[in-house]
Amino acid sequence: MIHEECGLFGVYSDGNVGVNENLAYTCYIGLCAVQHRGQESAGIALNSGGLITSRRDLGLVSEVFTPENLKLLGSGGSGEIVLGHVRYATTGNKRRNNAQPLVVKHIKGSLALGHNGNLTNAAALRKELELQGSIFYSSSDTEVIIHTIVRERLSAPSIERAVESAYSKLRGAFSLVLMSRRKLLACRDPNGFRPLCIGRMGDSYVFASESCALSAAGADFLRDVEPGEIVVASEAGLSSIRTHCGKRPTSLCVFEFVYFARPDSVIDGVSVHRARARAGEILAKEHPANADIVIGVPDSGLDAAIGFSKASGIPYDLGMIKSKYVGRTFIAPNQELREAGVRIKLNPIKSVVNGKRVVLVDDSIVRGTTSRRIIELLRRAGAKEVHMRLSCPPFKHPCYFGTDIDTRENLIAYHHELYEICEIIGADTLGFLSIDALSEVSSGCTSGLCRACFSGSYPVDVSGVQLKTEFEQDIDTD
Question: Which positions are catalytic?
Fold first, then answer.
């Protein structure tokens, strides 16, 4: 599993002394709020008087940054612009060199870049850049993006115009926050695969992957960055380049509503909590169950379980406890660690499920091993029946845009029929949300949805896409 889902946070300060003195810590807070989007590495780049200093390393935000090393950034942690990034664990490229933000110095200045998404033409672009003399130190497509922007900057009059020009060469999913000596940019690919929003804190501007990070930092939500838009925060205030807006059908990853985003976030006009609750309500109508209790798999299954209970009239209860100190098993780097994570992460409450017919609501089934283990735990706790319900359709197709589904090999729904999956995971009955229901789940969304992992209908041409596993075979990782 090799595609990253990441978290971004950045602040362009208004020059307020109080804000400046704590800018590194403000970024720390913002990164903690998007920690669920990436648990492999964390990094912060701070601009103080045009000088960019940075720290990035493997680990959680709280492990990479301490009060002491935060003060080592800039002038004791103060500055005018800050950019932070969290990245999640992937197979084959868990290396410090792949941690972000990436910082480079070039003939026209310095740049720091954080990226969420996945380029579909990264390998081809990298080969082209290498033939032109570019040297790469990581295996991430983020470095391909920053090299592309720097190339365009040689002839462009400004950093934002360089990014505008680079758009024509980049394919796939890219939400970016980019810092130069005097500006902070927020950029979203024309399809809008990955979320990005804008907030305000006094006269300072804040960019983040999710609105929950704005709230954590004390900023007010202004709006989402539109697909294709380049937003520039500078001394002149906030400006926008919309050259690439409206050029393609918008395709926000539906998995943001299913799993990735925090329930207290609002993405492209839709409350994540309400979207998940609606999925549960529809699920109860599409796949009713005769049961005594509804429980959810923490965390992203809880909202849908509440919706299922509301629509079905079956009482909802807290049936499983999740350890807060174990990472998300979906994004653990290999299957052995994922299964070990389930054993120590989730534990059923026996007094709730013992002797009961249980409706178990979760967000998805990818490989099936986690679901099988959870059902085993419930039966050991005395559950009489377990009726599994999923708040998204079956995963049948690879994703090339940044979700951890890069091959059909490990997709249980691609290889098995519904009744076979039910037997494999040990459920009494099984029901998935229909693809048609996704439109109702995301009702009010200002963007269209990418559902390719369910339907196989991709919003952009993916023929000839070279996956990162192939891309990395040519890279010396010693």
Answer: 6
